[in-house]
Amino acid sequence: MVRRSILALLILLAACPAVSTPSNAATGLVRVVVFKAGLTAGAGIGRGVLSFQGRYYRFRMLGLSLGATAGISASRLSGPVTNLRQPGDFAGTYAAVGLGGAWVLGAGVVKLTNDKGVTIALEGARAGIEFAANLSGISIQLECRHRSCATSIEGPTL
């Protein structure tokens, strides 16, 4: 009887899905200003601030795009950053698929993912004359990776 109970318990445990431990990844928030120009191929440069665990980290970004791109624009974007374990995970090369447009004023949406699994979903206002539906590669570099040089005050201005 005891043997059957143990066997039944082992079968039940084997049949149950494994319980995973929660990820150590956290979520941050990013604000960025980007200037972009292009005709078929495009280039952009920007600066921003990552808000993560009560600290603010300044960063720079540089991007190249290929696809349906025409015009010149300036964008002010913001959104969540997910799968972030530490500020250094934010830096890196991101692949992006973006869609947006502006005729004096417009909107843009872009989702970025890097090789560490960090994902940034940005949206916001765009000014200029531009249409874009393209694939992009974007490099993000933190101005300082150390927690000691991050500010704890209300986010720095862009």
Describe the structure.
The chain has 158 residues and is mainly beta. It has one domain: Lipocalin. It is 9% helix and 66% strand. It is built from one helix and four strands. It has a four-stranded antiparallel β-sheet, with no helix packed on it. The termini are far apart.
| Biggest sheet character | 4 strands, antiparallel
Structural class: mainly beta
Q: Which fold does the CATH topology refer to?
A: Lipocalin
- Taken from the alpha-carbon principal axes, the silhouette is elongated
Proportion of strand residues:
over 45%
Strand order of the largest sheet: 1-2-4-3
Domain count: the total is 1
Q: How does the SSE layout of this entry go?
A:
Layout: H1 2-15, E1 26-52, E2 55-84, E3 92-114, E4 119-142
Antiparallel strand pairs: 1-2, 2-4, 3-4
Key features of this structure:
158 residues, mainly beta, Lipocalin, 1 helix, 9% helix, disordered N terminus
